[in-house]
Design a protein that fits this description.
The protein has 564 residues and is α/β, with parallel strands linked by helices. The protein has 19 helices and 12 strands. It has a 10-stranded mixed beta sheet, with helices on both faces.
Length: 564
């Protein structure tokens, strides 16, 4: 194991320094304002192995340190109620020149394992390059496990998977604390930790919702930021989540069409059709045969050879297009199926092929696996045996997780709802939305249709506790770097230019569907980020590619090895 050199002296040296200076040594948790400039007052110990992932990466180990820092529930009341938030630090492998704070997004994603890829000694990835001269730190957002997570069951009827009811139950259990779950408070918690660690400045790498934290950091504490990378930005707006959810409905269609175009481009391999609409029809036929509700998915635009004339604009904002005739047919079929309960019929051990496709749109390395599964079902070879396929099992597990969730504030869907309603309760813009939403299932509407309608109603179970400050492009040591993919289903590509404009940052566009790019296997993106972290500079106008995969081999279910 490489012995790391720390950016700041460990706690035992802090106590000695305090005695030399004639100060009373601080406790293991340091409130804002008590830190000694340039000295780390946090008491670090090796992180315990609290999970299988921790054990996989060899915890406890000397270069992965944990502590707990006390932060005010209300940052305007320093002597009021406090909560301890967990902090994890992976120390630099060489001479430490700085510290990078990071957040994986969500909101509500557990941040504690964000930097673990830097612990895998078998690879030399982009994050390893960062770690050579930086400590890597996470601050667990308040309300998650390790940072004051609440149990919200508390009697009454079982709310099951109803995230709105769970959010309301959590709010009722501790309104003072739960109403404090806001982007601004999470950033202020980070600032308490930065000061407790004695750091003059930090760099910040935010993924997805983590970019909202970065933008807020620039707005509130610009002089404390050395470098800032905003990877897959949520976009600056007065209604963070309302705007995101509306736009996701559009980009989900676009990303799905993008992958079906890739399958069509490789029709000689998969034999599913040479246009996206033909691929769509094959998948839809499989799902209809299986009895799955996935036939709610809308078709891609028709192309020459499809034999369907014309196309109409669609989507929540009239962007994108699907073939008008095909769409009308699908909607009529959906309505007919919904009226008979067919969309809700599930066959035991059935494979939801559209759900599988949707689960991997942002992971190009898995497109071929899904295409082979669809091809096996559509063409009747590979024996139709897909039950043992590793991909299908993993995706089915992922889909099933939604049915069994703990009633905790650290459940990501519950946490997202709480934070969304705390700071951005959506405006009611469509007086017919409640009635349309109530009938949407009956007419076989798509998931995107339903989500759009939901976010045109006052669906939050409690009023907002705050309004996020408007993002301000305050000058920093280096302007932010913004990474944004064209067909990202989570943070739509249209948010990239708006984020760059609002922060004064430099936008690097990326062709593709991947959500969160740095250190995920795109060397061109990694080099841009690493150069920016070194120099603070980014070339203007870059438009990078995501390498499109080649078809992979026939899955191992093909025992004869002949592909048939």
């Amino acid at each position: 194991m490489i012995k790391a050199r720390l950016c700041r002296p460990p706690a035992v040296l802090v106590v000695a320094a305090a005695l030399v200076l004639g100060l009373t040594p601080t406790a293991t948790t340091a409130p804002l304002g008590t830190a000694i400039a340039g000295v780390d007052t946090v008491a670090w110990t090796p992180c315990p192995a609290d999970s299988e992932v921790d054990e996989m990466f060899g915890l406890p180990r000397a270069d992965v340190l944990c502590s707990s820092v006390s932060v005010p529930v209300d940052h305007d009341v320093a002597d009021g109620r406090r909560v301890d938030v967990e902090v994890r630090r992976i120390t630099a492998t060489g001479d430490c020149a700085g510290t990078v704070f990071g957040n994986p997004g969500g909101p509500g994603a557990d941040a504690r394992q964000l930097w673990y890829s830097a612990l895998n000694g078998e690879y030399d990835d982009a994050i390893d390059e960062v770690r050579r001269d930086h400590d890597l730190v996470i601050v667990q957002p308040r309300g998650l496990e390790g940072a004051g997570a609440l149990e919200c069951s508390g009697g009454g009827e079982n709310v099951g998977t109803d995230h709105l009811a769970r959010a309301k139950r959590c709010m009722d259990s501790d309104p003072e604390f739960v109403s404090s779950f806001t982007t601004e408070n999470i950033v202020r918690d980070h600032e308490v930790v930065r000061e407790a660690m004695g750091l003059e400045r930090i760099s910040f790498l935010g993924y997805s919702y983590g970019t909202a934290l970065g933008m807020m950091y620039q707005t509130l504490f610009p002089d404390r930021i050395e470098r800032m990378v905003l990877d897959s930005a949520v976009g600056p707006t007065d209604y963070w989540w309302y705007q995101i959810d509306r736009q996701q409905a559009v980009t989900r269609h676009q990303a799905r069409d993008y992958v079906m175009q890739w399958i069509a481009d490789h029709d000689p391999t998969y034999e599913l059709g040479d246009t996206p609409l033909k691929v769509y029809n094959n998948i839809r036929a499989l799902d209809r045969q299986e009895g799955s509700g996935a036939s709610r998915f809308l078709p891609p635009p028709a192309q020459p050879g499809d034999g369907v004339p014309g196309s109409l604009a669609t989507g929540s904002l009239g962007t994108g297009s699907v073939d008008g005739l095909a769409t009308g047919s699908v909607r009529l079929d959906n309505a007919a199926l919904a009226s008979t309960g067919e969309l809700d019929r599930e066959i035991e051990d059935s494979v939801r092929f559209f759900a599988l496709l949707d689960a991997v749109v942002g992971s190009p390395r898995r497109w071929s696996e899904v295409a082979w599964l669809i091809s096996a079902g559509a063409n009747g070879w590979l024996g139709g045996e897909v039950d043992g396929n590793d991909l299908e099992e993993k995706v089915e597990e992922q889909l099933a997780m939604q049915s069994e969730v703990p009633e905790l504030t650290s459940d990501m869907e519950t946490y997202l709802t709480i934070l969304q309603c705390n700071e951005t309760a959506p405006p009611v813009r469509n007086p017919l939305a409640p009635a349309l939403l109530g009938s949407s299932d009956a007419v076989g509407s798509t998931v995107e249709d339903v989500k759009n309608l939901e976010h045109q109603t006052a669906f939050c179970p409690f009023p907002p506790s705050t309004v996020p400050p408007r993002i301000v492009a305050n000058p920093m040591v280096a302007a932010p770097l913004v990474l944004q993919a064209d067909h990202d289903t989570q943070t739509p590509g249209m948010f990239g230019p708006a984020t760059a404009a609002a922060t004064g940052g430099t936008l690097v566009r990326i062709r593709g569907t991947v959500h969160c790019y740095f250190d995920t296997g795109n060397p061109a993106v990694d080099e841009v980020v690493l150069n920016y972290l070194r120099t603070g500079e980014v070339a203007q106008g870059q438009y990078l590619d995501t390498p499109r995969p080649a078809p992979g081999p026939v899955p191992s279910d093909d025992e004869d090895g002949d592909g048939r």
